[in-house]
Amino acid sequence: MEKLSPLQIERLKYQPKLPESLANGINSLDMVEGSATQSVRDQEQIQNLFKNTYGKPVITFKKSSSSSVSDVRNVGVILSGGQAPGGHNVIAGLYDALKQANSANKLYGFLGGPSGIIDGKYVEFDDKFIDAYRNTGGFDIIGSGRTKLETEEQFQKSLEVCKKLNISAVVIIGGDDSNTNAALLAEWFVTHNSGIQVIGCPKTIDGDLKNDQIEISFGFDTATKTYAELIGNIQRDANSAKKYWHFIKIMGRSASHVALEAALQTQPNITLISEEVEEKKMSLESIINYMCDVIVRRADMGKNFGIAVVPEGLIEFIPEMKSMISNLNDIMASLENDPDFVNATTIRDKFDIVENRLDPANAKVYNSLPALIKGQLLADRDPHGNVQVSKIETEKLLIEMISTKLDKLKSQGDYIGKFNPQSHFFGYEGRCAFPSNFDADYCYSLGFNAFALINFGLTGYLSSVRNLTAPASEWIAGGVPLTMMMNMEKRHGEMKPVIQKALVKLDGPVFKQLEQNREDWAMNDRYLFPGAIQYFGPSSVCDVTTCTLKLERSKELANV
């Protein structure tokens, strides 16, 4: 038998909390329909692509005074995309609701992500299997993957597997791309009269899958608390040694929600926000100048130390870098089979070939970068053919350029300090942590609620649990049509329907909180030390959620 840590033993005993409507029983629910919906943009194109699932109403559940008998249903579940804390609890909630509805119901887990439903690789869950994974981190219960569900052949194979197992509904747990796939699969199943429903669950630690109905994606709470603990530890070290500048890159490619939340929890000296950089059209030079200004002014105060938090996707938001990377993505596709490039004997030869292919302005930018970064920009591409931003050591790029700038200032007599930089990247550390009480409760509720949507015959919906700053008993369970969140974007040179990413709003209360305190935190050491996630003790410590959610919800409530 696997040996468990003392914490894991205790966490397995934890019973997640449910909204009152769901706690009343899965067979004792009434469904309330809102008004018809439309996509966030490109309404005509989205409606044409989703003729059967477009325009559905937002759904809310309330407890019923009567109880109904649930039909026997077999359900399949898929974990899709990167890991996020709480995924196991989504499956546990789905399983418990399914068995509560009818003990004859079965839950199948497709192995290795969406490829499992295509290839027919699965496992059937039972109580013992599920109980071993309750309130644990990771996706190891069935594994995950990034296979896209978008082709006719994939849909047909998925249908055949579902028919073989007599599956009448599929739940896809994933982020914006995964739930775009869920919407496409739901539409295809309806178009082909398959009788199979598709429900999504909002997962991503990046926090960029949200809207008025999806207040937060699961995993964000745990991941940001994990990163904040690490940043707080480093701040305590910096404040003790007083001789190091720590540059911390933190996960979040397309949006800076994670970096922003971690900054609000810890109050570092410098926080860069990608969306602000793009909005203000800040050049790489202007970013370096800003950071150097803080470093020099702190040195003048005798403080040769500090903390800088940098979002993972920063370089793609710097206008000249964004242009250069876009140009580079295009030419790298043509260089894959170019014999001169493939057979180049040195990395510098490859640099020269790339610079000769780039547009002059982009070549100038590329040439200005340190060799380390130039090489990383030529590394393996992601499935979309793009630079893998997580492999670009942005924190080291900044350190090298800041060092060069400070040396110049020192030679001019404008800098008297010492610059001893340390670099860090926090990414995988947060993706599989033990879920916080909030994420354990939220995820369990999302899974339980997903079966409620199935029980009412819905398809093409995303499980939604709202009012999340209130006690769990007051949370509002329901569903939002996936098409409501969609727009058209260019992917691989074609316009495709995708769920719109939610970026940091510069006029929103979360960014404003940082903006208002930025100068104070830069010069004065207002460091906060969050410490480890707490699972036992007063609710004010164990059940507290993120600054982001509290600030956004307080503004929403103020506008009601």
What does the average pLDDT come to?
95
User: What is the helix content?
Assistant: 40-55%
> Which class of the largest domain in CATH terms?
Alpha Beta
Distance between the terminal alpha carbons, to the nearest Å?
A: 53 Å
Q: Give the biggest beta sheet.
A: 9 strands, mixed
The percentage of residues in β strands lies in 15-25%
Named at the architecture level, the CATH assignment of the largest domain is 3-Layer(aba) Sandwich
Low-confidence stretches: none
Rg, Å, rounded: 25 Å
Which class do the helix and strand fractions yield? Answer: alpha/beta
Number of domains: 3
The number of strands is: 15
- The CATH topology of the largest domain is what? Rossmann fold
> In which order are the strands of the major sheet placed?
1-2-13-12-7-6-3-4-5
> In one word, what is the shape?
globular
Count helical runs: 22
Could you characterize the architecture of this molecule?
With 560 residues, this protein is an alpha/beta fold. The chain has three domains: 20-219 and 435-491, Rossmann fold, CATH 3.40.50; 220-312 and 393-433 and 501-527, Phosphofructokinase domain (Rossmann fold, 3-Layer(aba) Sandwich), CATH 3.40.50; 319-390, Arc Repressor Mutant, subunit A. 44% of the residues lie in helices and 16% in strands. The strands form three sheets. Strands 1-2-13-12-7-6-3-4-5 form a nine-stranded mixed beta sheet, sandwiched between helices. The longest helix has 22 residues, at 220-241. It is globular, with a radius of gyration of 25 Å. The relative contact order is 0.17. The mean pLDDT is 95.
